[in-house]
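Ticket #221: bound-state structure for protoporphyrin IX containing FE.
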Amino acid sequence: MRKTGLYLYSKFERFWHWTQMLLVTLMVITGFEVHGSFKLLGYENSVRIHSASAWTFMGLALLSIFWMFVTRQYVNFIPSRANLNEQINYYMSGIFKGEVHPIRKSLFNKLNPLQKLVYFGLLIFIFPVQIFTGIAYMYYHYPQNPIDAKGFEIAVYTHTLGAFMVVAFIIVHVYMITTGNTIATNLRAMISGYEKEEDHEPKVENKENQENNIVNESNEA
Ligand code: HEM
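RESOLUTION: The complex was predicted; output attached.
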């Protein structure tokens, strides 16, 4: 695996990304089995695996929040209007004409403006909603339910709606992975940490990159 170019994804970030992918996949499969969508692992097993994945996911979330603040990497997820129109035009037409990506990536600007919006929604809205409604679900015990039954129903519907939104995110995310300069550019970067510089020569120089930096191997953390 190549180790030259821009060093974008640190070891922890790659560990977090792939572990989260595994846990979310497990929660989608077992969650929809509990929902009754199909039979695969059995109801009891699905409940057990769903709960174990959920606790691991929450532990990982705490660890990644800590990491984001210590490394200031949280800035990558703050929505911004800068270059939003260029990005929309790129996805609507430029991408089909083989044009170059309008945004140049850097350590503090890894996501384009549309990705920032989607990831912000996922991390700040959908995941917390899944956690709160999931905890309500976990601590609802019949017949002596400590959580009000009406409120509980809302939590279940919200949890299921959140699960559909997670599935929608996964579908779009998998498509987006293939839209790098080559079909494997983005995937390779999330495995090795490095992205080839020529993979994202910019059409528009964005402000963040003037302030931030081109990162190389010496930044490996
Ligand atoms: C990506 C995240 C997640 C997805 C896609 C997901 C999906 C689902 C789905 C589809 C169900 C079935 C709902 C129904 O129709 O009854 C479910 C049930 C459940 N989920 Fe999640 N979930 C996620 C995260 C979590 C988290 C973080 C927790 C805990 C904090 C959690 C706890 C539960 C519990 C306790 C149940 C009920 C299982 C049972 O019947 O005992 N989930 N989940």
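RESOLUTION NOTES: The beta strands are 6-7, 194-195.
TICKET STATUS: resolved
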